[in-house]
Each structure stands twice: as structure tokens, then as C-alpha cells.
Design goal:
heterodimer, A: 253 residues, mainly alpha, globular, B: 324 residues, alpha/beta, Rossmann fold, Alpha-Beta Plaits, six-stranded mixed β-sheet, 11 helices
Amino acid sequence: MKKFYTLLKYEIYKLMVSPATYVIALIFTLSIGGIFAFLLHDYTRFEQDIPLIQMFCRCFWLPTCVIVPLLSMRSFSEEDKYGTFQSLFAVPISYMEVVLAKFLATYGMFIFLWLCSWSLFLAVGFKSGSIVHETAFASQFNIGGGLLFIAVTGLLFVAIGIFASSLTENQIVSCMLTFFILLTLFICGQFFANRSQISNLTLYGTYLESLNIFSQLDNFCNGVFDSRIIVFYVSTSKLIFCFSTVAVQRKLN
Amino acid sequence: MSGNDAVVVNNLTKKYCRQVALNAISFSIKTGSVVGLIGPNGAGKSSILKILAGVITGTSGDVLINGDSMAENAMQAKRHISFMPENNPLPDHLRVGEYLRFRAELKGIPEKRIRQNAEKVMRQCDLYYEARYCMIKTLSKGYRQRVGIADAMLGNNEIIILDEPTIGLDPHQIIGVRKIIDTSKGTRTILISSHILSELETVCDNFIIINRGHIVATGTLDELSNNIKEQDTFRAKICGDEQIIRKEFELAGIQIVEFKRSPYGDEYVIKFIATEEAYRILLSKISNHRELFVKKIGYVEYTLEEIFLNSTRRCRDQDDIENS
């Protein structure tokens, strides 16, 4: 376990000392700030049915699609490119520990960036009570639910990023692959949302509804924490995590 | 396998898709010995070293490291091994001291002894004063190589595997590496792969020659030399007139295989085949000859380079015969 912590510490350090991480953080902050400013501008002009934070969460796919590929692209691709894999696996450490350390470091950074943006968001929101009514802005369910949803889905997105990175030694390819997969997931989510509205009340419609990522987000923001959704994302990320472990093992051999 | 074998390789085969890199090879390495692994490019040296270090797995066969099977209990087997890979890949974003500390933690060295261990290897590898706080990315190739060697020497691993450790080092540093290996002799088992055969000849007790995935020869330099020694082949270094030398050989009934003029004046290097009796006759004649001076004469002693070239050529010839 001590070796795993050493590895995790090393991965976090690697992210922290890399200028690329700060560029990613800047891109993230700019995109989050842009989205927030745009929504706030809308909310001050027109009356809205749903709280601002829920609307803000609905746009989470955009920064996610950008930062997850950028954060995860270097995890294995870089090791593979420089050949540091060999010395890493020459010590008594398992493939799973290495993959888990990289996954947790990237996931930690992903959550850290979201938390930072959240704190800024909340600070601005609560200070501007005169501009936006508090209930229109956010409730405790909206805040907790939105965060929980991003944290849970983040597991899957980061796992996909790590998996893509374990497949190739080219960082650009890894980045594009992750971006493409995530974008497909979100487009499918929107597609399922449209289809479920058409075939409402049928079994097919219910099934599609359960796969609709945006409907899941709305449920979480409204305080409906469906444990099946959590189990779904955790188990899917675990599966992809296992694929990454196998991919690393195959790559070395 | 005997009780004092540090490494035992049994019928190890490694295939990359259809390409056979190692073909059912078997050998063992005695505890405390320094073994040189040599072979031409693409012979399978790096594959053997990576399998021994547990970085990759063999397709079939097994490797025992101090009795622990790499196939069945890789974690335990890896505890005995320290490995410096070819080209010595290092993370650029760390300082030398930080890197060695990180490696020490991964190798499971107790917290209290990490600093002491890291300092010791840095001093051994001449890194302590000059490069301790330097970022790895700013180091020259020689320094990087020394960091890799320091990493391999870190801890108390009983077996050290070095893949091309002296590449990029200047003669002083090579002597330094030789000293480090010499101090570890007897206490640690060291397996070195290198193309610098003269270097291996100096530091290694035993050699394993590999070619096209097969073990071509194993043993000490003398054993290897005996294996390829052609019967009754001698070599002489004689100063004098060429005609006289040739005449003396002819009179003794000796067949000259090779007659070379040395660049240093009237000195000739002669390789010849003779019976024991003919050799004695020749020796008495030329040593008493007024116009000839025998500088050196005796059975042919092969250098590692000659043994290597001979062994790998022989293997290639056999393969060609089999293919045709």
C-alpha cells in the first residue's frame, strides 16, 4: 500500500509541476467563466423555470469534453513514449496499482478544478442576491446533487481518458480519441432524451430515459439520488479501468 | 538447478506475434557472479533481461529468481532484482535526489534508510556533489547513465541487471562503473549486457552468448576459448626476415594459416597448425636462430571478440545449412 501512495504522490506531483496542467486549468476556468457569465446574463433579463445552477450543470459536458482528454492524455502515452514503463514495472508493483494511481491523480485534478469553479460560482451567486433571487439561483439539493453527478460521471469520463491513453503512445491521438468518445456519449445522451420523449410511457422509452445523461443530471439536481445510476457509473468505470490494466499489460508484452 | 544459483531459466520462449525472440533457452547464473550477456543486435538480449526483471512475461517456460518463480510469484521474485533498462529512460521533471528517493520508496527501502542509501549510491556514482540537485532533463548523457546505475545499485537487491550500462560514459566513468561492479562482486549477482566486449572481458567471470534466440555458448573465457579452439593451432610473434621465418616453418613441416606483418617493423604474427612434436622442433630451431627473435609463441588465446564472432558466425552457418 505504501508503494501505491508513493506512486500516487508521484503522479500528483507530475501533474502539479507540469505547465500543461496550468494551461488546462486556464482553459477550464475561461470556459466555465464564459458559460456562467452567459447564463447569468440570461437570468437577469428573463424569468427562468429552473435554477441557475441546474442550467449551469447542464453545460458541464462542454468543459468536461475539453479537460478530461487534456488531463488524461499524458498518463500512459508519455510513459510509453519515454520508456519509463520498463523501470516502473521492474519494481514489485502491480499493473493495477499503476493504473489506479494514474486514474486517481487525474480524477483528483478533475474534481479539484470543478470544486474551484464551484466555489467561485457560489461566491458570486450569494453575493449577488439583489440581481438573482436565491431560490432561482440554487438550493442545497441543486448544489450537492450537481456536484455529486459530476463526481460520479467523472469516474467514467476519466476512466475513458486513461483507457485511451493506455492504447497509444501518441498524446494527440489519445486526446482526440477521448474527446471523440466523450462527445459521442453526450450526443447519444441527447439522442436518447429526444427518443424517450417520442416513445414516452413505453418500455423502450423508459429504457432510453434511463440512459439519458441529461435527465439523470436533472434528477440529481432536484435531489433525486438514484443509486442505480451511481452503481452504473461506478461499475462501468471499473470495467474500463480493467480494460486499461489489460491494455497496459498487453502493450508491455 | 543447484542451491547456489541466483537465476535459473528453464525452456524460456518469447514470441512477439509470430516472431520468435527466444527459443526455449535454458541457463543458470551462480550467486555472486558477474555475467556478461552478449549477442548481435536482435539476438534477444533485451528480451531476456526484461523477462528476468519481470517487466515482460515469457510466452512459455519459467524463470526462478533466488528460487521464486517469476511466472507464479512475480512480486516476490521482483524483490530480488534491480534493473537498469536499455537507453536508461528517466523522468525529466524530477531532480536526481528526488528521483532516487522515489525509486527507493518504490523498492520498499525503509524510510529511515532511504536518505543514507541514496547518498551512498550518489557518492559511488559521482553524483553527490555535482548533480544531486540538478533536474534530470538538464543532465548530459553520461550523468543520466550514472543516475540509472545509481538507481540499479540502490537498495539491497541481490541481483542487478544492467542493459548497456557504459554507453555514453567517458573512460574515467567507465573505470568508475567497473569499480562499483568490482565492489559488488561476490555479494551481488550482476548480469550485464553490452556491445563493448573489451569492457565485459574485464569485469565478467562468465559469459552467455546468444544469437537468434538461442544460447550459442556459456562459460568462462577459458571455457569458451577451449570450445572454439581449433586443434593444435598456435600463434607466434617473431622478429626477423620473412624468408628465413617461412623457411624455418617449412623445414619443421608446419603449415602456416596466417602470416601478417606487424606495423612495428620486421615483426610478423603467424598463425599455424602443428603437431606437438613439430612445434617443439620449430621452437628449438627458431629460438636458437641468430637472425630471429621470438617475442611470443604458444597456443592461440582468443579474445572475447573473437569468441563472439566465431560463435555467432557458426550459429549463422548452421542456420543457413538447415534452411537450405
